[in-house]
Inverse folding.
């Protein structure tokens, strides 16, 4: 199918078949419109880190705003057959879907906010059929962008204020992989992308150098540099490693000198192979000796936060980092593993639900949950997940989800804010989506609120985030009850 068709069609069927078979079942049982609550959350920080950056809400909002079964969608669903060749869904159900209007309440943590395991990033409350149907697309969107925003934040942190450019499109997981990654990487802290469509769609600054093929297309490196310098006298970065890096730097300098009288500004050189520490030091020496103190040294070649940290420790003279594969594919952890779990259903009154697991850490949390973040003037102190429906004690206690004997009293004078904010009310958007620049700024302000022991990459401390103690007790009682009845 043509790309345009794939990407411009309705995305309502961008969900798993089982969401539709459950929807049909609920409809047949008369349960389709029973009110339910689901939470989207993850269980473990990616990359062994101490924090995660929420991202993807804007695309989730766009998806939900457009949630409507088109004539084509309905025709496709009508065409689906069961194993005996019988229609999978009856026509009356297809008609029901045809007139369905999204009517859920959605609350979410704004993009760029630092988040912790078990905290609902998104809370959906509404008709069971609808709230269930949107599980998979919400996870697709939020899991990936949150993962990449977190990776990018780590890379930007390792670069310690240097410019970072995202170069990953060619190695990304497909077309949307490249676009979503460019957006999320920008939220995480990257300064620019080489991906023009991402630049156009999301208003991200675009930047780039040139490829080896440019140099190969000329008889000599000098000719290649001169031609590029002619075309871009104010914005040239020469890739110097096509044949011999140190010789390449010398030739780049010679060309820059030659072009200088014509107003040429020597923007930079790029290193893309070899020992980047040694070569950047050599290059810096040569550039400085020639008086090009402001000329940047760009490096690329399978870099990530670990290599950047290592190269900096070695004293590499690199001040711009081009990062592709390892960032946009989240190479060392290619999925976040966020989940979407039913937490409450209305049967006259609210009934709270959990999904049991052998591991306590994997058992979901019951209730209609909110996240309260406590902070003082210096930093974030602790997060507390609590049931919004229940009265909070005057002095709430936070229970460590992995060790319930560890409890934390909230400081008397700590300020607090609730992280989940209203996004949709009865299907109508009530949230003003911030622009991407504001989200990016929010990310860096958020990370700055974390103690450095939580920010560090090697064996970070755990930020205190847990359940409010009465919610913890309720959960434990529910687990015991369910274990008894399951026997
Ligand atoms: N000083 C360094 N210390 C550790 N790793 C480095 C250093 N300099 C470069 N690297 C990394 O080592 C890896 C191998 O780089 P190298 O250029 O030697 O091989 P390559 O990428 O296979 O070469 P080419 O790009 O020419 O095919 C890359 O990930 C690069 O970023
Ligand atoms: O290494 P990454 O972090 O993935 O960054 C992107 C890579 O893409 C380019 O290489 P490629 O070999 O595709 O083309 P080139 O000829 O321009 O080097 C570029 O030179 C980088 O090395
Ligand atoms: O502009 C660049 O230097 C660039 C763009 C994409 C991939 N690698 C490098």
């Amino acid at each position: 199918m043509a790309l345009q068709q794939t990407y411009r069609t309705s995305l309502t069927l961008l969900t798993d078949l089982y969401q539709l078979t459950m929807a049909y079942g609920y409809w047949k049982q008369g349960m389709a419109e029973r009110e339910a609550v689901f939470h989207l959350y993850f269980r473990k920080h990616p990359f062994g880190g101490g924090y995660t950056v929420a991202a993807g809400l804007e695309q989730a909002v766009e998806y939900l705003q457009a949630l409507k079964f088109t004539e084509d969608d309905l025709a496709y669903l009508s065409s689906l057959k069961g194993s005996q060749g019988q229609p999978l869904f009856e026509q009356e159900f297809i008609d029901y879907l045809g007139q369905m209007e999204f009517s859920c309440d959605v609350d979410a943590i704004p993009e760029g906010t630092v988040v912790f395991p078990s905290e609902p990033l998104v809370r959906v409350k509404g008709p069971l059929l609808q709230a269930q149907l949107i599980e998979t697309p919400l996870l697709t969107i939020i899991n990936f962008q949150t993962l990449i925003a977190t990776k990018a934040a780590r890379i930007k942190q390792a670069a310690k204020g240097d410019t970072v450019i995202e170069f990953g499109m060619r190695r990304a997981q497909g077309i949307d992989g490249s676009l979503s990654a460019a957006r999320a990487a920008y939220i995480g802290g990257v300064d620019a992308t080489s991906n023009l469509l991402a630049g156009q769609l999301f208003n991200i600054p675009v930047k780039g150098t040139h490829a080896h093929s440019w140099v190969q297309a000329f008889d000599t490196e000098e000719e290649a540099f001169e031609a590029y310098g002619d075309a871009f006298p104010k914005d040239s970065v020469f890739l110097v490693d096509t044949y011999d890096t140190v010789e390449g730097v010398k030739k780049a300098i010679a060309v820059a000198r030659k072009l200088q009288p014509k107003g040429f500004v020597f923007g930079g050189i790029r290193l893309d192979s070899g020992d980047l520490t040694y070569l950047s030091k050599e290059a810096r020496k040569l550039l400085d000796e020639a008086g090009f103190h402001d000329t940047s040294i760009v490096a690329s070649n399978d870099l990530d936060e670990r290599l950047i940290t290592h190269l900096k420790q070695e004293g590499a003279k690199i001040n711009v980092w081009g990062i592709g594969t390892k960032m946009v594919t989240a190479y060392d952890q290619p999925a976040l593993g966020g989940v979407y779990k039913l937490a409450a259903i209305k049967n006259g009154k609210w009934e709270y639900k959990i999904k049991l697991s052998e591991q306590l850490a994997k058992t979901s949390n019951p209730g209609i949950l909110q996240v309260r973040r406590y902070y003082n003037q210096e930093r974030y102190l602790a997060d507390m997940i609590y049931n919004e429906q229940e009265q909070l004690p005057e002095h709430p206690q936070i229970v460590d989800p992995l060790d319930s004997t560890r409890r934390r009293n909230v400081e008397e004078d700590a300020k607090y804010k609730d992280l989940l904010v209203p996004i949709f009310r009865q299907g109508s958007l009530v949230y003003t989506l911030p622009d991407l620049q504001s989200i990016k700024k929010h990310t860096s302000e958020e990370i700055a609120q974390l103690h450095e022991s939580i920010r560090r990459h090697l064996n970070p401390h755990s930020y205190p985030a847990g359940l409010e103690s009465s919610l913890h007790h309720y959960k434990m009682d529910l687990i015991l009850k369910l274990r008894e009845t399951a026997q």
In short: The two ends are 51 Å apart (CA to CA).
